[in-house]
Amino acid sequence: MWVRNAWYVAAWRHELGAGQILARSIIDEPLALYRTREGTPVVFEDRCCHRFAPLSMGRVEQDDLRCMYHGLKFAPDGRCIEIPGQQLIPQSACVRRFPAVESGGWLWVWMGGAEQADPALIPPSIALDDPGYRLKASQLDYAADYQLIDDNLLDLSHLSYAHEKTLGLGAPQWADERPRIIALERGVRVQRWLQNQVRGYLRRDEMFDMWSTYDFLVPGIFLLRTAWYPTGTAERLQLKPPTEPPVFLRCDEQAVTPTTARTSRYFYATGARSAEIDQERVDKMFAVVEAAFQEDKAIIEAQQVVIDRDPTRRMLPTSFDGGPTQFRRILQTLVERESQSPQRAVAVAAPAE
Prior knowledge:
By secondary structure, this protein is α+β, with helices and mostly antiparallel strands. It folds into two domains: 7-121, Rieske [2Fe-2S] iron-sulphur domain (Rieske Iron-sulfur Protein), CATH 2.102.10; 133-313, Naphthalene 1,2-dioxygenase Alpha Subunit, Chain A, domain 1, CATH 3.90.380. It has five helices and 18 strands. The longest helix is centred in the last third of the chain and has 31 residues, at 279-309. The radius of gyration is 22 Å and the shape is globular.
């Protein structure tokens, strides 16, 4: 189940260097990514219109991309502008171009109709080189349906068990405290207080109240802010959202991108405000995150194997499944809406900008 009219994370911005071509797959669509001389990202269908050779095996020439099978050259708008040994270039000689935008730390690609590609739908995220933050980032490939990763992020009660020695260390309340779930336009907001928490990278053995809030947005964007306050803050605020500055603010930003029906790419970054943390503590925090995400990967890939043995079996919901259930309904609604107004899937060059 894929939504086409959505912005998907294709890469970290720094992954796509000048003169480089990246091969990516999003919702089972092979893509070729490169930059113009000004640094503008260009995303093509990874298929030359001539003999269907992958354009990701081609060569960047100034602002254009040349197929290195028979030499056809394509302008950034997807039009073929040169065919070796041939003067006449047919109007049909073009490749499909996908809208692409750089925002925050990511390079985003719109997989649906170009006329509906609204950059305002891209959620705000922190650039990795933002001087106000110290962040560390990576990515992980899964042999699993992306929705299983979405489910995992939408129900953090698993931290108490799957991550009892990493992210959930000393925090059994994750499996006890029901979060507040707020419906958003294209996702959900999940909030909760956890009281009397210890965090060694703050102050050793000192207790805090922890406020966790995150937005989870179509197709699988997870923007988490975790704030620590003096003990008693949650009770004083009657468990309502805080409006005062925290002792420490942690930032986690993640994106789940379906590559095929049974494979996904998971982008993630973690850190804090520069004034509150040094690089050594960021490295320690990130090491815990990477260990925890390997725990997730092992469980989710094993879960996918079990599901594929008998896809007809239905899962048993529990009281913590509100987030995953609501989000899957949002995806289903958007997919059904698109099916009523199908997008043209032909390779038509976009007009020059």
